Structure formats: structure tokens, C-alpha cells
Amino acid sequence: MMSEVRKVDARDGKLAMAHIYVAFIALALGGLCGLLQVLVRSGKFTLPANISYYTILTTHGVLLGLVLTTFFIIGFQFAALSRTAGTLSDKVRFWGWIGFWTMTIGTAMTAYYILIGEASVLFTFYAPLQAHPGFYLGLTLVVVGSWISGFAMFAHYAKWKKEHPGQVSPILTFMCVVNMILWLVCTLGVAATVLFQLLPWSLGLVDRINVLVSRTLFWYFGHPLVYFWLLPAYMVWYVVIPKVIGGKMFSDSLARLTFILFLIFSIPVGFHHQLVEPGIDPAWKYLQVVLTFMVVIPSLMTAFSMFATFEMYGRSKGATGLFGWLRKLPWGDARFFVPFVGMLFFIPAGAGGLVNASHQLNQVVHNTIWVTGHFHLTLATTVVLTFFGAAYWLIPHLTGRVMTKAMNRLAIIQAVVWAIGMFFMSGAMHFAGLLGAPRRSAFSTYGNAPQALEWIPYQIAQAVGGAILFIGIILVLIIVTNLAFFAPKGETEFPVAEVAEEAERTPLVFENWKLWLGITVALILIAYTVPFIDMIQNAPPGSKGFKLW
Amino acid sequence: MAKQQLSTQTKTKVEKTSSLKGTLASVFFLGFFLIFTWVSVYFLFLDRL
To answer: CA nearest A122: which of A212, A200, A67, A59?
Structure first.
């Protein structure tokens, strides 16, 4: 009980806030690019001054998909570690700052080469599209910076374990550690393709590139990347939301098991992004599809746990009937309402994910704008709204301020605006995708092909939705600026829930890292070794670089 | 004695606070929605074969 008044140390707060500032600057710039994109794709607007659609598209994807997320997550995790495992040591904080500056310099470098038109290769930077070496170097620095921060986090965890032998670590600390292990294991793939393939190739040291290997290494990283975004949102759902509503965590063990299952199953599944890729034996694709469907289990466990937390709380307040507990939830509290909207959107997002990952169904939606609609539900709604909801208590906690009622109301309006905008934009993307509209492409009627003309009403709906979402971005930036600089001084709680009395004791096996890492590595080796050897042994001549913009 | 005590009890409808029937209904709804979406796109796939 006493621990609930604990505050994040001011020096740790500064480190976390530095990350959060960069994240929200990325949101502002990336969001503006998103608005320009949907306007271009409506066919009613062309970019001025010869700016390429693909430059804007790459900026949008890199700033929002890679920069906003990674910076917010690392900042949030440093704060969470400081709150639950004690103030960071000077050494850990020092390395946290080194990580921050490495990532920031990398981001600036990457952004520079995109904006001068030397790297319009989209955020997936698929070969044979070839960017300026500075783009790849910048991305390398972002990843290396995140590793430095990751190891700083591990050191902090190790210190806690040393000081508390035989004890189960605080759940938020445990979750941060799992997420950084996941990140470190999966970024090995992207580091390998960037350092050994893309960089030498763009520097002209080698002439050709094995495209299939580079894409495979990218998706070895690309799918767990989604879970690197999602797990901090789950931290908020499992640990923060129960406290915000006044309830308790349904089960500590269930939450930890969920995170371990994500660690194990989210990496050896990259082939489900490559289901129409030639050169990979269908049997290996099948194996990875099966493993992908294993990820459904922790997702459904989370859904169950959330419903149970809400129902237990509602019933403890006297709710009756099948859904009476819903009425007891604090709908007027932005810290609950905003992430809750994110949770709701995760239902269609998950359903779409099952379609994407099914081999035959993937042929209906592959490379269509359905996929873009899908990750605007997962990342750009579920994850991002949860991050916004977290920012509404985290920023005032770190800056020694309080959220006013007016800002709370604005935050609720912001979530509603976001939901409406995303309903139109993502909904239209899903339907246009089912009609064959491609992703990753500017407006075209493809020679007035009847099929392409069918997409235009949906593209206009996307522009309407995107414009509404841009209003949502302006609103969140107003709120964040207020909380960081102008809100009244005061104390804001960093909510961390206790576990329900009925829950079972948490077994120590969840922190048997040798076991979990062993299973993770074994599954990766099983899923990738044979097809990877095949890709290298039976490789075509390789491709020269292309700059199509 | 025990019988007397029993006979004076009034019947009140008490719902167990630990009931999770709403959760059960919610996860069933979620499951049906997932299956519905999957089957819908599957039939679209079959239709386009």
C-alpha cells in the first residue's frame, strides 16, 4: 500500500521525458505527412514543389512506425523501471542518455536523407529499392541506441534481482525486461541485413543483393516489431488500468505467462508476411503460419483478463446482470477511456490479423491497402491510443503537474475524434483492399481501368478519415504540451495495480530466462534454418539497386 | 435450534461478486466475431477462385 505514493526520481523523469518529447515531435511531423498522403490518394490534391508522394510516405512510416514507437516505449520503460524497481543508478542513467542521443542522432540522419529525396524506400526499405548509405547508417544508430538502452535496463533489473534474492520481480519491471529481450533478439535480423547486405550494396562495395534473404531478415524483425509496440500497451492494460478503475489485477501469473508466450511465439513467424513470396518452400510457410496462430493464445488470454478485471471491479461495486459491470467503469476518466477505445479497436484488428496470416486468405489481401488499414487499427489505434492514455498520467507525473478537468475532457474528445477518423479511414482501406486497391502507391486510375475507378469513393473516405485523424493529432499535441509545460503544479500518481486476493502466488519459473530464451532460440532455429540455407544455396544472381523516385 | 434458525431466513437474491459470466459472454462474442470475419473472407477467396 505504501509503495503507491512512490514517485519516479526527477533525474530518471528527465531521461524518460527526453524520449517522450522526441516521440511527440515525430507524431507531429509524421502525422502531417499522413494527412498529405490521404489527400494525394483521393485524387483531388497534388503535392506542391515537386515533392514526391513516396518521400512523404517514407517519412510517415519511419517517423510513426519506428521513431514515435521506439522513443515512447523506451522512455515509458525507463520510467516504469524507476517506479517499480527503484531509482536508476547513475551508471544506468548515463547509458540511458547515451542510448537516447545515439537514437536521436540516428533519427535526424535518417530523416535528413529521406527529406532530401535520397531514401524514398518506405519504412520497410525493401531491396532492390536502394537508399543513400546515410539512411541505413541512421537506422543502424537508432537500433544501436535502443540496444544500449536495453542493456542499461537489463543492468537495472540484475541489480534488483541481486538485492532481492529469491523474490519475484515487480511485474512492470518483468514486462519491460521481456520486451527488451524480444527487441534485442528480433533486431539482430534487421541489423544483419543492414550491415551485411544493404549498407555494402548501397556503398557500392558489392554490386548485387539477395533480395529474398534481405526480406526474410527484415520480417524476422518486422513481425516481433509489432509486439514490441504492443507489449507496452499490454503493460498499461494489465498493470495500470486496473489501478485507474479502482480494481485489482486479475492474475499476476497470467500476465507474465502472456508476455513469455509473446516472446516465444512472435519471432519465428515472419514468413506470414511473405506468403506470396517465391523461393520459400510452402511447408516452411505452413509451419510459420501455425506458429503465428499460436500468438492468438496470449492475445485471447489478454482479452479474457481485461474483461475479467472489469467485471470483477464492477461486481465489487454492486453491479448485477450479465453486463451491468460495464456501467460501473469510470467512463469520464481519460486514463481509462482512451486506452479502452484502443482495446475495442483491437477486436477488428485481431480479426484482420487472422485473415492476413492465413495462407489462402492472404492471397485476397496481400499487398492491398487492407494491410495498411489493418496496422492502422493495431498500431495507429490500439497501441497509439494506449500510449496517449498513458501519457496523460505519465507526463504530469514526471513534470510534477496535474491534468485539469478541461484537459481530461479534451482527451476524451480526442479519443472519440480518433475513433471516428479511424473508422472511416481504416474501414475504407479494408474495403478498398478487398476490391484490390494496392498499398504503397500514389493515386492512379491505371488507365481508367474499371476496377481502379471502383476504389475512388473509398479513397475519398480515407481522405475524410485521415483529415479527422489529423485533427486528433492536433488535439493530442495540445494536451501533451499543456501537461508538459502549462498544467498546474501538483502530484500525479503513477498507477500500479495490486493483484487480486484470490489470485494464485506467482511462481519463480517465469524468470528462468535460460529456459525461455532457450525455447525462443530453438523455435527460431527450427523455423528458419533450413529455408534460410535454401535461400542462400539456391539463390538467383541477385539484384542491382533501383532508385525509382 | 438449527431448524428454527433456518425457518426465519428470508430469501434474497444474491449474485456472487466473483461471477465472471459477463466475461464468458464477452469472450464468446469475441470468438464469434473472429470466426465470422475469417469465414467471410474465406468465402470471398472461394468466390474468386
So the answer is: A59
B21 contacts on A by Cβ (under 8 Å): 322
Residue of A48, A27, A22 lying closest to A36 (CA atoms): A48
Those residues whose C-beta lies under 8 Å from the C-beta of residue A43, and which sit 6 or more positions away, are A443, A445, A456, A459, A460
Q: Which domain holds residue A503?
A: 2-537
Does a structural domain hold residue A110?
Answer: yes
Q: Which residues of A touch B15 (CB under 8 A)?
A: 315, 320
Nearest one of A148, A218, A155, A154 to A188, comparing CA atoms: A218
A546 located within any domain? no
Q: pLDDT tens across A419-438, in order? A: 999 999 999 999 999 999 99
Which chain A residues are within 8 Å of B41, Cβ to Cβ? Answer: 355, 361, 364-365, 434
In chain B, where the domains are located: 24-48
Residue A527 lies in a domain: yes
A100's CB contacts (< 8 A; 6+ apart) are A15, A18, A19, A74, A145, A149
Cα distance between residue A516 and residue A394, in whole Å: 31
DSSP sequence for A240-286: IHHHHHT--BS-HHHHHHHHHHHHHHSSTTGGGG-TT-TTS-HHHHH
Q: CATH number, domain at A173?
A: 1.20.210.10
On whether residue A544 sits in a domain, the answer given is no
Q: What is the ipTM metric for this complex? A: 0.90
Chosen for mutation from A275, A312, A328 (greatest number of chain B CBs closer than 10 Å) is: A312
Rounded to whole angstroms, the Cα distance separating A304 from B30 reads 10
Q: What is the pLDDT of residues A360-404, one digit of tens each?
A: 999 999 999 999 999 999 999 999 999 999 999 999 999 999 999
Number of A/B CB contacts below 8 angstroms equals 71
Structural domains in chain A (count): 1
Measured between CB atoms, does A501 come within 8 Å of chain B?
A: no
Could you tell me which chain B residue has the CA closest to the CA of A317?
B17
